């Protein structure tokens, strides 16, 4: 043993070759926290002072290589002043420089995932050998920043500027075949041969067969790119990346500009240029929002793990009602290796469900994400049936039949008699009370809501709805199944619309009031899309289905008559009466025709303006700011109510539900984070300006108290 710390050890691997092993005590994964960084410095000192070391392997004592920096420490550091934060970033760069500048050959043996700072430290070594089970990447742009520990400096010098720009600006995690193709790693080997291959590389360097010193010098020198080619690469990249990233995500374009700026500089000056722009990005509201969402996601995963400890088994599932939704649920379950029965009352429904699953699998095959054998395996896990014959062996059932209370009650009561007494039943209802549906059951404690969002394979959120009699074990089992399906479950208490739909309909209420007051629905859509919503409210209603929205609106009105019931006919009612149901029948607020790929493309229909005259005032111009205020206030206030009433347990869960459920802009961090950014007091004042519009715009007493006390939804 040459050195032993709490994060790094320096061991003798073989004669003349040492192993610098990262194995952070008390953690399941390696990450660069302050302890690890200090320990790395001590380990490097020990290596520098041991002349018998002729070559060095950087390795990991965990199943993954290094997941990156400790994000919790990141948050605290981002609040420091610019000069202090710059100094901390450069301290890490000096450490990585010491590794790079060792007068011996160095190889990173990447056994698993190497992300962010984990990949950056491997770029400081002369060579990289990657396990076939490993992956590498620089995902920092997903946090509103870009690599700050030499990633934008070293990767272009290793792979070329164009490849580095793609890797840095997409933030993707790359497989071994991608990494070897562009030269990001030097070899890909089976896991059992990883250390041996790394040692062989070092022995070749020591024998003079490989020019490791040339490798070091190449990374210290300016980027080798002729001026004309440089201009073409960077100017083209900036234009393309700006278009892809959009106006609200500055980090990708800033990363390209940073690489362009330091391309002509030697390493040490280039690292300074990188660090300065990194600090600028770290100080943006976007970085604060995205880092917050990352931490919120970690919080939800931790919560799910705690629930799963109480879960019953989920080895076999069933879905009642095939069709598009049932087929989507069956596909997702089977894809994630939980076998599922798909039952319907007629063969037509079964055929539709299998067609949906087959279509989704075919897409994966065409994109190279699955081969034909894999597709066959997934389809074999979906067992179509017209009877309850095999239901005795099912652990969990998802009911996904017609959204009608009497039908659901009948189906749930029927299936309860066909499953084991400890089997869990769930309903995919989007509006009907779980407590009410449970009245049809003998074992209501074994029943809860499991609300998937459409399309199932794309939408990450599942609302797990607890009825009055739902047991903890039932909730835990459904949470477990959702996680096994690759979804993010959020547990909410029962109420009309649950969490997401309850909050969404006041947003639609803000939209229909604006139309009623003379606003052009097309402008509302454009303003809200510029705000960051994936689609404006009129377009969203067309996608959801006007008939579906009309039905859900009635549920909301019955549930919250004080603020959601209106005696006035709305734009939504007009579209429904005219049987303009949206994309499903080709006409709603817009009309739809298939594009070249067969996808519905929206176009303006002049007839709509005539139809809306029945409910709309004379056309009036509204500012962007007023449209945003009138859309966000009802959305924000209803979210506050769900929190105050205990429907959702925390601001984190409320915000994550809306980010994942309706596509609330990630760069804003969620509606409650948005209110915090504005200031609770300022939001209440804004709501008061529009209180004349009705109860949807009137702040709660609890929110007023928060404003008076200077409180926030999120604390530092």
Automatic annotation (TrEMBL):
<dbReference type="GO" id="GO:0004165">
    <property type="term" value="F:delta(3)-delta(2)-enoyl-CoA isomerase activity"/>
</dbReference>
<dbReference type="InterPro" id="IPR008927">
    <property type="entry name" value="6-PGluconate_DH-like_C_sf"/>
</dbReference>
<comment type="similarity">
    <text>In the central section; belongs to the 3-hydroxyacyl-CoA dehydrogenase family.</text>
</comment>
<keyword id="KW-0443">Lipid metabolism</keyword>
<keyword id="KW-0511">Multifunctional enzyme</keyword>
<keyword id="KW-0560">Oxidoreductase</keyword>
<dbReference type="GO" id="GO:0036125">
    <property type="term" value="C:fatty acid beta-oxidation multienzyme complex"/>
</dbReference>
<dbReference type="InterPro" id="IPR006180">
    <property type="entry name" value="3-OHacyl-CoA_DH_CS"/>
</dbReference>
<keyword id="KW-0456">Lyase</keyword>
<dbReference type="GO" id="GO:0070403">
    <property type="term" value="F:NAD+ binding"/>
</dbReference>
<dbReference type="InterPro" id="IPR018376">
    <property type="entry name" value="Enoyl-CoA_hyd/isom_CS"/>
</dbReference>
<dbReference type="GO" id="GO:0004300">
    <property type="term" value="F:enoyl-CoA hydratase activity"/>
</dbReference>
<dbReference type="InterPro" id="IPR001753">
    <property type="entry name" value="Enoyl-CoA_hydra/iso"/>
</dbReference>
<dbReference type="GO" id="GO:0008692">
    <property type="term" value="F:3-hydroxybutyryl-CoA epimerase activity"/>
</dbReference>
<keyword id="KW-0442">Lipid degradation</keyword>
<dbReference type="Pfam" id="PF02737">
    <property type="entry name" value="3HCDH_N"/>
</dbReference>
<keyword id="KW-0413">Isomerase</keyword>
<dbReference type="GO" id="GO:0016509">
    <property type="term" value="F:long-chain (3S)-3-hydroxyacyl-CoA dehydrogenase (NAD+) activity"/>
</dbReference>
<dbReference type="InterPro" id="IPR050136">
    <property type="entry name" value="FA_oxidation_alpha_subunit"/>
</dbReference>
<dbReference type="InterPro" id="IPR036291">
    <property type="entry name" value="NAD(P)-bd_dom_sf"/>
</dbReference>
<dbReference type="InterPro" id="IPR006108">
    <property type="entry name" value="3HC_DH_C"/>
</dbReference>
<protein>
    <recommendedName>
        <fullName>enoyl-CoA hydratase</fullName>
        <ecNumber>4.2.1.17</ecNumber>
    </recommendedName>
</protein>
<comment type="pathway">
    <text>Lipid metabolism; fatty acid beta-oxidation.</text>
</comment>
<dbReference type="InterPro" id="IPR029045">
    <property type="entry name" value="ClpP/crotonase-like_dom_sf"/>
</dbReference>
<dbReference type="Pfam" id="PF00378">
    <property type="entry name" value="ECH_1"/>
</dbReference>
<dbReference type="Pfam" id="PF00725">
    <property type="entry name" value="3HCDH"/>
</dbReference>
<comment type="similarity">
    <text>In the N-terminal section; belongs to the enoyl-CoA hydratase/isomerase family.</text>
</comment>
<keyword id="KW-0520">NAD</keyword>
<keyword id="KW-0276">Fatty acid metabolism</keyword>
<dbReference type="GO" id="GO:0006635">
    <property type="term" value="P:fatty acid beta-oxidation"/>
</dbReference>
<feature type="domain" description="3-hydroxyacyl-CoA dehydrogenase NAD binding">
    <location>
        <begin position="316"/>
        <end position="495"/>
    </location>
</feature>
<feature type="domain" description="3-hydroxyacyl-CoA dehydrogenase C-terminal">
    <location>
        <begin position="497"/>
        <end position="592"/>
    </location>
</feature>
<dbReference type="InterPro" id="IPR006176">
    <property type="entry name" value="3-OHacyl-CoA_DH_NAD-bd"/>
</dbReference>
<dbReference type="InterPro" id="IPR012799">
    <property type="entry name" value="FadB"/>
</dbReference>
């Amino acid at each position: 043993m040459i050195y032993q710390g709490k994060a790094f050890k320096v061991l003798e691997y073989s004669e003349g070759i040492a192993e610098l092993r990262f194995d952070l005590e008390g953690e399941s994964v390696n990450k660069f926290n302050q302890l690890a960084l200090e320990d790395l410095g001590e380990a490097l000192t020990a290596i520098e002072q041991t002349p018998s070391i002729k070559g060095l392997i950087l390795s990991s004592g965990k199943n993954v290589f290094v997941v990156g920096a400790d994000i919790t420490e990141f948050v605290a550091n981002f609040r420091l002043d610019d000069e202090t934060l710059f100094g901390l970033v450069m301290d890490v760069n000096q450490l990585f420089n010491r590794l790079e500048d060792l007068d011996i050959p160095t190889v990173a043996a990447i056994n698993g995932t190497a992300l962010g700072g984990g990949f950056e430290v491997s770029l400081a070594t002369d060579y990289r050998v990657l396990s076939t089970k490993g992956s590498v990447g620089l995902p920092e742009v997903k946090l509103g920043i870009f690599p700050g520990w030499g990633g934008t400096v070293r990767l272009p010098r290793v792979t070329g500027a164009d490849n580095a720009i793609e890797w840095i600006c997409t933030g993707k995690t790359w497989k071994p075949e991608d990494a070897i193709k562009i030269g990001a790693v030097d070899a890909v080997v089976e896991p059992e041969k990883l250390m041996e291959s790394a040692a062989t590389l070092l022995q070749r360097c020591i024998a003079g067969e490989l020019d490791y010193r040339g490798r070091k010098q190449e990374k210290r020198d300016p980027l080798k790119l002729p001026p004309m080619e440089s201009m073409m690469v960077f100017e083209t990249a900036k234009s393309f990346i700006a278009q892809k990233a959009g106006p609200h995500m500055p980090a990708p374009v800033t990363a390209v500009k940073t690489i362009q700026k330091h391309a002509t500089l030697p390493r040490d000056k280039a690292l300074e240029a990188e660090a300065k722009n990194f600090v600028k990005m770290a100080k943006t509201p976007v970085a604060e929002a995205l880092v917050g969402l990352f931490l919120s996601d970690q919080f939800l995963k931790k919560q799910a793990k705690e629930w799963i400890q109480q879960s019953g088994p989920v080895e076999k599932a069933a879905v009642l009602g095939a069709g598009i939704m049932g087929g989507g649920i069956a596909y997702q379950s089977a894809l994630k290796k939980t076998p599922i029965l798909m039952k319907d009352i007629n063969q037509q429904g079964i055929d539709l469900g299998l067609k949906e699953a087959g279509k989704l699998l075919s897409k994966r095959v065409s994109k190279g994400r699955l081969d034909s054998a894999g597709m066959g395996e997934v389809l074999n896990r979906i067992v179509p049936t017209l009877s309850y014959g095999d239901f005795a062996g099912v652990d969990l059932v998802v009911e996904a039949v017609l959204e009608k209370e009497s039908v659901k009650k009948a189906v749930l009561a029927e299936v309860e008699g066909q499953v084991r007494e400890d089997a869990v039943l769930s309903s995919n209802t989007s509006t009907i009370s779980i407590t009410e549906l449970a009245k049809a059951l003998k074992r209501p404690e074994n029943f809860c809501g499991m609300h998937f969002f459409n399309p199932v394979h794309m939408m990450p959120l599942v609302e797990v709805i607890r009825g009055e009699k739902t047991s903890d074990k039932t909730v835990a089992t459904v949470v477990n199944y959702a996680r096994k399906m690759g979804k993010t479950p959020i547990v909410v208490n029962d109420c009309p619309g649950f969490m997401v739909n309850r909050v969404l309909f006041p947003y639609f209420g803000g939209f229909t009031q604006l139309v009623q007051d003379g606003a052009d629905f097309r402008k509302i859509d454009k303003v809200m899309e510029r705000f960051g919503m994936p689609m404006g409210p009129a377009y969203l209603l067309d996608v959801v289905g006007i008939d579906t929205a009309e039905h859900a609106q009635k549920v909301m009105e019955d549930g919250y008559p004080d603020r959601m019931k209106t005696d006035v006919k709305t734009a939504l009612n007009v579209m429904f009466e005219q049987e303009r149901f949206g994309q499903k029948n080709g006409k709603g607020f817009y009309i739809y025709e298939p594009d070249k790929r067969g996808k519905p493309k929206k176009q303006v229909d002049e007839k709509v303006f005539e139809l809306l005259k029945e409910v709309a005032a004379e056309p009036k111009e509204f500012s962007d700011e007023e449209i945003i205020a009138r859309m966000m206030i009802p959305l924000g206030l209803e979210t506050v109510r769900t929190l105050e009433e205990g429907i959702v347990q925390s601001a984190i869960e409320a915000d994550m539900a809306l980010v994942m459920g309706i596509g609330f802009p990630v760069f804003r961090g969620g509606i409650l984070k948005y209110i915090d950014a504005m200031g609770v007091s300022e939001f209440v004042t804004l709501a008061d300006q529009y209180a004349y519009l009705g109860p949807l715009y009137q702040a709660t007493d609890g929110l007023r108290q928060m404003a008076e006390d200077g409180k926030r939804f999120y604390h530092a």
